[in-house]
Amino acid sequence: MTQVSYPWFGIATGDAGPYTFAQWNTMYRAIFGEDRDDYGVIQNVENELAITISATGPPDTIQMDIGAAFIHGMYFSSDALETEVVPTSAAGTYQAVLVKNWSTQTVRFDVRIGASLTQTDGVLWEIPLATFQVDAAGNVTALADLRQFIFEGQQTVFLSLSMYPETTDGAEAIQTELTSGQPEVKGFAFDQTTSEAIQSYVAMPPKWDRGTFTYRISWTSTVASTDTVIWDVAAVVVKDGDPIDVAFGTVISVTDNAQGVANDQYITTISGALTVGGTPEDNTVDMMFLRIARDIADALAGDAVFQSIQIFYAAKQNDN
């Protein structure tokens, strides 16, 4: 095992340079996102490479604001507004991305069709800034932020026993002993034929950045099946003095498959970004209400038993 440290001044003693491109790249990847393929915009630098619709057409124009980022160990900055006119050749889902190109030795702003990214070491590496829909005429709709920020820090909130069934068509609270003295199944049984839901609420930590969050759900099934279950989650923030009787935000779904055995443990993948309803604000106590439902259009012919939800949120930079 080779031990190394850098950078040092000089070129002769100990671990002093000169240093190769690969060494600098390795160091920056380790600091700014070795394990996060979509890192990362540098938080609080200028306007953080925010994506907006800067001109209406059709075709519309997508604009990247000024800011800086590290992409796959490479520093990038832009001190001027950059624009891309959306293509009209194909309607569908598009992404605004930063592209690291080994052939041209550049990092540049671009627009890509599709929801996937190219991330091939030594060739091309893309990170997302936003996603949007484009129609055949070039009109942009459904613009959504996909930026991930360096050092903002991912935190979690875990909710299980604090859930409660909705008064109208609430899921049934159950507790099932499988074998005496061994783990029991405790949760809420969601029927396939009736649209049922449960709710919960939590005071979000002050360090929450008031942005979107993702989630994953732990669940099990009362039947032996390999069919899918779809969980629907929505949230809304209510502050001190606000009415509780408000609408939830946009539903974000996650799909998971049972694996052929009743009462096996299942854990979904992490969902897409969920936008919270209401108006989260800094320096306030944000009481966040959650609504969790099962999509009765899924395929599992039996009860899906919800056990818990884990929320992943971004913490504000330098927050204590």
- CATH architectural group of the largest domain: Sandwich
Whole-number count of domains: 3
- Supply the CATH superfamily name of the largest domain: Galactose-binding domain-like
How far apart lie the N and C ends? Answer: 37 Å
Strand content: 35-45%
Write the layout of secondary structure elements.
Elements (H helix, E strand, L loop, with lengths): L20 H12 L8 E2 L8 E5 L5 E4 L2 E5 L2 E5 L3 E4 L6 E10 L4 E8 L5 E2 L3 E11 L5 E6 L3 E2 L3 E6 L4 E2 L6 E5 L8 E6 L6 E7 L4 E14 L6 E11 L13 E6 L8 E2 L19 E8 L9 E12 L5
Parallel strand pairs: 1-12
Antiparallel strand pairs: 2-3, 3-6, 4-5, 7-8, 7-10, 9-10, 10-11, 13-23, 14-17, 15-16, 16-23, 17-22, 18-21, 18-23, 19-20, 19-22
Structural notes for this entry:
- By secondary structure, the chain is mainly beta.
- The chain has 3 domains: 1-32, no CATH class; 36-150, Triple-stranded beta-helix (Sandwich); 154-315, Jelly Rolls (Sandwich).
- It contains 1 helix and 23 strands.
- The chain has one helix at residues 21-32; strands spanning 41-42, 51-55, 61-64, 67-71, 74-78, 82-85, 92-101, 106-113, 119-120, 124-134, 140-145, 149-150, 154-159, 164-165, 172-176, 185-190, 197-203, 208-221, 228-238, 252-257, 266-267, 287-294, 304-315.
- The strands form 6 sheets. Strands 13, 15, 16, 18, 21 and 23 form a 6-stranded antiparallel β-sheet that branches. Strands 7, 8, 9, 10 and 11 form a 5-stranded antiparallel β-sheet that branches. Strands 14-17-22-19-20 form a 5-stranded antiparallel β-sheet, with no helix packed on it.
- A hairpin with a 5-residue loop joins strand 2 (51-55) and strand 3 (61-64).
